[in-house]
């Protein structure tokens, strides 16, 4: 199979709709298979590596689309799922999103719609060279969209973009640092797309939580009989990504013995599959990422110093969302536009008070948490404007604000107690900026000062 072809499985008894989607996706060089029966789909997913499953909810079987989603997550947790259904409705959409669907469409679906959605999910075109030049993500446009899901015009993000633009055309190793959810894989993928290796594969792997045996097999491959369950030869990610890019996420969690093996591959450009004695030459650019302090891990003997220096050709740090708050409105509206399109509703606005809360919240989960919050608000909002009452309850809980979705929690409490909690939570939210707090609470600054003194805050 040619490089850069994403495998897509369409599970839908509606042959006409499936065929339309298949033609659109294949025209963009995706590899597509049609399987109308969910039982066959389950067997196929269990036997092969499928990147994306597009499924109808009503499959005319004892297995429906939601059941299929559950089984896909069990067999292949990295496979993304898109729901395309004739059972349109907000409750169906909510259930699909709760179960982890990457996207949702009500039939009939225009072929261009599904193609656009799949491209956004994949994060890359299956054949970059077939795109017009201007369609490739442009790293040298500070403040613009570096990549879907990673916009930003703050000075900190402009600096990230400038570094990425400089290293992208080279073969130098890159170490991306940042908290969980900041978009490290998005940046790595964008660097790949703007490199001379854009025709090759981009393959990510998370080094955390994998045993040494499994990680070695994933990276270097194995031959038949190498271990129990190795029924056939299997290529590892280094071989699959030959002439392309391998993204090693959370490299600080890699076992020390695996670090030594990785270093040898990076220095020699040769891998040996598990159970084999035949070396395989590979040419792969490695981009690594971590949310840990690798220099400290080196001093603690948890990270090999030689590997640290080898992967740290150029280091770039993606700032936490709380350190670039001016980007939050841009991100919110970008995610809102995407989500409203997915669920088929008119574009929503965000009230000033709600936006102020979202801007001032610390977002410990960064972009990933913000995207999920926007998804929830877009689905749950009853009107045409997101207000404070639509903000997810967990954010209210963290801020110490009353949960607007649980009025019973306020019943029977003294009004002054509720008022004190609201003022204290708002002051914490805006880091004791009294002007901002007064604006959020809808009262004058003098009134706020008086309340602070009254409640001894």
UniProtKB/TrEMBL annotation:
* Any one GO molecular-function label of the UniProt entry: sequence-specific DNA binding
The keyword Nucleotide-binding appears for this protein: yes
Q: Where is the Response regulatory domain?
A: 7-122
Q: Which Pfam families match?
A: AAA_lid_14 (PF25601), HTH_8 (PF02954), Response_reg (PF00072), Sigma54_activat (PF00158)
Query: Which InterPro entries does the UniProt entry name for this protein?
Result: AAA+_ATPase, AAA_lid_NorR, CheY-like_superfamily, Homeodomain-like_sf, HTH_Fis, P-loop_NTPase, Sig_transdc_resp-reg_receiver, Sigma_54_int
- Return the SMART domains for the record: AAA, REC
Alphabetically sorted, this entry's keywords are:
ATP-binding, Nucleotide-binding, Transcription, Transcription regulation
Superkingdom of this entry's organism? Bacteria
Q: Which protein are we looking at?
A: Transcriptional regulatory protein ZraR
Q: Which gene is the coding source of this polypeptide chain?
A: zraR_5
């Amino acid at each position: 199979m040619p490089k850069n072809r994403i495998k897509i499985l369409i599970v839908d008894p509606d042959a006409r709709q499936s065929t339309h989607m298949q033609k659109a996706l294949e025209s963009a060089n995706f590899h597509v298979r049609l399987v109308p029966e969910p039982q066959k789909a389950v067997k196929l997913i269990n036997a092969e590596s499928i990147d994306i499953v597009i499924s109808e909810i009503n499959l005319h079987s004892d297995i429906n689309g939601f059941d299929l989603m559950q089984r896909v997550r069990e067999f292949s947790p990295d496979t993304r799922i898109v729901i395309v259904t004739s059972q349109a409705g907000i409750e169906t959409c909510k259930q699909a999103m709760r179960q982890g669907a990457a996207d949702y469409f009500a039939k009939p679906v225009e072929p261009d719609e599904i193609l656009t959605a799949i491209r956004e999910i994949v994060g890359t075109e299956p054949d970059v060279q077939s795109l017009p030049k201007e369609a490739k993500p442009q790293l040298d446009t500070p403040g613009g969209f570096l990549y879907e899901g990673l916009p930003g015009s703050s000075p900190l993000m402009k600096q990230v973009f400038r570094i990425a633009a400089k290293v992208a055309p080279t073969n130098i190793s890159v170490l991306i640092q940042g908290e969980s959810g900041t978009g490290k894989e998005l940046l790595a993928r964008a660097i790949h797309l703007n490199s001379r290796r854009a025709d090759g594969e981009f393959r990510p792997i998370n080094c955390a939580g994998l045993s040494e045996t499994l990680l070695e097999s994933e990276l270097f491959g194995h031959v038949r009989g190498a271990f129990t369950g190795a029924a056939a030869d299997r290529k590892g990610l280094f071989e699959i990504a030959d002439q392309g890019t391998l993204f090693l996420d959370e490299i600080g969690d890699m076992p020390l013995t695996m670090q030594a093996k990785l270093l040898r591959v990076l220095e020699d450009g040769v891998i040996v599959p598990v159970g084999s004695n035949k070396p395989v030459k590979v040419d792969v650019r490695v981009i690594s990422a971590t949310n840990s302090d690798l220099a400290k891990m080196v001093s603690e003997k948890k990270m090999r110093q030689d590997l640290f220096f080898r992967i740290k050709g150029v280091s770039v740090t993606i700032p936490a969302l709380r350190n670039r708050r001016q980007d939050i409105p841009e991100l919110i509206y970008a995610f809102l536009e995407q989500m409203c399109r997915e669920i088929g509703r008119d574009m929503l606005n965000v009230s000033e008070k709600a936006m102020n809360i979202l801007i001032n919240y610390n977002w410990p989960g960064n972009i990933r948490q913000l995207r999920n919050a926007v998804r929830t608000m877009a689905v749950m909002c009853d009107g045409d404007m997101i207000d404070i009452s639509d903000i997810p309850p967990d954010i209210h809980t963290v801020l110490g604000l009353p949960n607007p979705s649980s009025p019973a929690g306020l019943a029977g409490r003294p009004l002054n107690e509720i008022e004190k909690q609201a003022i204290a939570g708002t002051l914490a939210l805006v880091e004791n900026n009294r002007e901002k707090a007064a604006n959020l609470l809808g009262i004058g600054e003098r009134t706020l000062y008086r309340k602070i003194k009254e409640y001894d805050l």
